[in-house]
Amino acid sequence: MTDKKTCDSCSDASCSSKTQLPGEKLDQFIERQQLMRRLCEIKHKIMVLSGKGGVGKSTVAVNLAVTLAREGKTVGLLDVDIHGPSIPRLLNLEDSRVEGTGEALLPVPFDGNLKVMSIGFLLQGRDAAVIWRGPMKYGVIKQFLKDVEWGKLDYLIVDSPPGTGDEPLSVCQLIQDPAGAVIVTTPQELALLDVRKSITFCRQLNVPVLGVIENMSGFVCPKCGELTNIFDSGGAERMAKEMNVPFLGRIPIDPALVLACDAGTPFAAFHAETETAKAFRRAIRPILDRERGADPARDSAETVVLETRREEDKNMTRIAIPVAQGRLSAHFGHCEEFALIDADLDAKIIRGKEMVAAPEHQPGLLPKWLAERGANVIIAGGMGMRAQSLFTEQNIAVVVGAPAEEPDAIAQKYVAGTLTTGTNICDH
Fold first, then answer.
1. Residue 293: which pLDDT band, with cuts at 50, 70 and 90?
2. What is Dmax (Cα atoms) for the chain?
3. Per CATH, domain 314-416 is 3.40.50.720
4. What pLDDT, on a 0 to 100 scale, did the predictor assign at position 340?
5. Could you say which of 3.10.129.10, 3.40.50.300, 3.40.1410.10, 3.60.10.10 is the CATH number of the domain covering 16-310?
């Protein structure tokens, strides 16, 4: 359904879209209102940039978008690489075509929470070449932002072509207030030289740099486990410190990632428990922290270290408790949210708690979804045998028959060894 909201109904009196600018023609004013009406429903617009081609920028953009979507966020992924669109291939959407409502274009859906738009969906064939100059590229990018019915999004991830040319400049001019840019590089100095230019580009256009990701950072032999730094390692982190921007982490070279890209199966979704997928989750942590209102000046490198330590702590157990109206939900598959509580069972203490909105109910989804979030134990009021077996397959221990108490109290009793369980209220 087409969004009927108009600028006239907006309560923000300070919005520049409510009034016609001096010298602005009526058709230009109406077009600007249409653009801003779309953009005002998108909370965070994030550009993914690289100073150089071949560093895996589109791969990173796809996996960041998928990772955010699997965190329960509503995400749009916009491919503005007009001459070499990669997103349709990376998501196995090459045969998809854009549909319209008469008033708007509809983005191509992917896996529930993700919506995608690319010029690749509009080409006659996979080998078709786009031979356009700057003004035509600006026009189609404006159309992707103005005429596509994105709806309400938590994040719009914009995958830009390498460099600091027409496409990223057009996005900055049209969006006006991007949340920031994630810059992708490889460790070698040649790539880092161009990354510095991307950072300068962002600063000149007042675009915050959310951080730098070092892709292709070392290769771990699948047979012996030896780490080989094919392209050196650590260069991006050193450069980030020199340029005073956050460092979001390293993504290693993984043969399975290459195969996933060629197959159009997002690595972060289909290989969620690998170290590479965990690296993507660590990379988005500072971005999510900014949304929650955490201090944006916090050292992102320190965040990565803390997350790594938590994952490697052998004594740490993550307890998942389904919650509805502040208490344990009797039906875990239809709860409002999950309390993810980190506990040291040896020391019998709680280390931390995170509340995460439950995903839309789908049969068989929750075991994998909770495993991706590091859960080792689920405590429920009741659970059928089939569901228990699915959790067991994900190496998640199941405790059933727990009382409908607040999650903190349940976790404290479980850690102390005093949790009393009753009858499993679901025996099918």
1. low
2. 74
3. no
4. 92
5. 3.40.50.300
